[in-house]
Write a structure and sequence with these properties.
With 128 residues, this protein is an all-beta fold. The protein has no helices and 11 strands. Strands 2, 4, 5, 6, 9, 10 and 11 form a 7-stranded mixed sheet that branches. Strands 1-3-8-7 form a 4-stranded antiparallel sheet, with no helix packed on it.
Length: 128
């Protein structure tokens, strides 16, 4: 069992930066694939960024490429999402997800169903 707790959300103005953190407890964090998803009101949960267990492979949703960066610190059992130049359309609840899988195809990271463990979410609101 892996427990995930997100933090770092808040209200920011468009163009600002924000860093989300996800702290994991239990399970084999160092080898788990990690990801960030987000869900805006009335919309489905969508993939934002993913990171392989080795940390060598990253994937991003098209609209955040070049603005967001996912990273991990295995010693601290944390995964981060650095959000730069945020936009009002980035407003959503952001969720951290984890899965012990070590084999993925190109579409694996972006599927909600790929992940066994989820955090409770942290709200990010971007004002224009």
């Amino acid at each position: 069992q892996v427990y995930l707790v997100e933090s770092g959300g808040g209200l920011v103005q468009a163009g600002a930066s924000l860093k989300l953190s996800c702290t994991a407890s239990g399970g084999s964090f160092n080898t788990s694939a990690m990801a960030w998803f987000r869900q805006a009101p009335g919309k489905a949960r969508e993939f934002v960024a993913g990171l392989s267990g080795s940390g060598g492979g990253t994937m991003y949703e098209e609209s955040v490429k070049g603005r967001f960066t996912i990273s991990r610190d295995n010693a601290e059992r944390r995964v981060y999402l650095q959000m730069n130049t945020v936009k009002p359309e980035d407003t959503a609840v952001y969720y951290c997800a984890a899965d012990p899988s070590t084999s993925y195809d190109s579409s694996w990271f972006s599927r909600v169903g790929s992940y066994d463990y989820w955090g409770q979410g942290t709200q990010v609101t971007v004002s224009s």
